[in-house]
Amino acid sequence: MVKLVEIEDDAVFDDDSQYTTDEDENESIASLTDKGEEDESDFDFDEEDDEFEETFLERVQALKDIIPIEKRRAFSSAISNISYWGTFGLHLAGKLSWVFTTSALLVVFPLALESDREKMMQQWESEQAGGIPGGQQQPMGGMLPPGVAGSAPGIVA
Fold first, then answer.
1. What is the model's pTM?
2. pLDDT tens, N- to C-terminus, the chain (157 residues)
């Protein structure tokens, strides 16, 4: 792996001679490498982010320059069509649900009440016609008169 290191002019040139020796150069490169690593860890990214903070609207407006006008028009018409058909569908669904709900309340609910009332009438008629096995009719209160078979034991009439 290759590691690139920036060498400053002061580190390479020495005051006494035009160039430094190889040992001095290696030491200066090593010291620069150590400084570079320390500088990177000390760098604060939050300060840079604060300087270039922009809103979402500004970013969208900046895209106008990048995207051609034909593409923008096509995208805009597609979004308009989607929003139109979406609102149309929601309005239609709302109207259909209103029709079905009112129809159920006006037609089905009274029909269900009448069906329940008819079942209750049939049950009452069957009780009146002698639907009790054994041939004895039970009075309306649901209790047998005293002395009749089926009364509680120990009670004599």
1. 0.37
2. 788 888 777 655 555 555 555 555 566 566 655 555 555 555 555 555 556 788 998 888 888 888 888 999 999 999 999 999 999 999 999 999 999 999 989 988 899 999 999 999 999 999 988 755 554 555 555 555 565 555 455 555 4
DSSP reduced 3-state for 153 = coil
Contacts of 14 (CB under 8 A, 6+ apart): 20, 24
Q: How far is CA 83 from CA 77, 90, 91, 116, in A?
A: 10, 11, 12, 47
CA distance 7 to 27: 12
Distance CA 84, CA 35 (A): 61
∠ CA(118), CA(119), CA(122), 5° rounding?
Answer: 90
Selection from 137, 119, 118 nearest residue 128 by Cα = 137
